[in-house]
What we know:
globular, alpha+beta, 5 strands, single chain, 3 helices
Amino acid sequence: xxxxxxxxxxxxxxxxxxxxxxxxxxxxxxxxxxxxxxxxxxxxxxxxxxxxxxxxxxxxxxxxxxxxxxxxxxxxxxxxxxxxxxxxxxxxxxxxxxxxxxxxxxxxxxxxxxxxxxxxxxxxxxxxxxxxxxxxxxx
Length: 139
C-alpha cells in the first residue's frame, strides 16, 4: 500500500468500460473512484445512507485524474484512498490506482457537505471528522 494510505478496494475492469481495443475508457476511472469512496464511507462512517439520514449530503465539487498506464479489460485494480483536508464544509480524497503493485493512475476529488433539505453548506460534523481521523490512523 502506498505510504500514508490505510484503505483500499478492488475493482475489475468490465468489458463495458473499455474501448474497441480493450483499453479502459478514461471516464471509467471516475466511476471507480466513486466505488472506492462509497465503500470507504460504508467501512468508516456507516455508509452514505447513514450520512443522508443525519441530514447532510456530500456533493462532489472537483475531480482530477492523472493517467500513468492503460488499464485493460479484466484487470483487477486496487484503489487506495484517503480522506484529507477537512475544513469547514469541505474535504478531499486522494487516490492511487494500482494493478499488481504498479501505479496506473492518481487522482483526487473535492467535496462539500450541504444540508439535505436546503442545500446550504454545513460544517463537517464531529462524528464524520472523528470517523475519518480513526480511518486515517495507522492500525
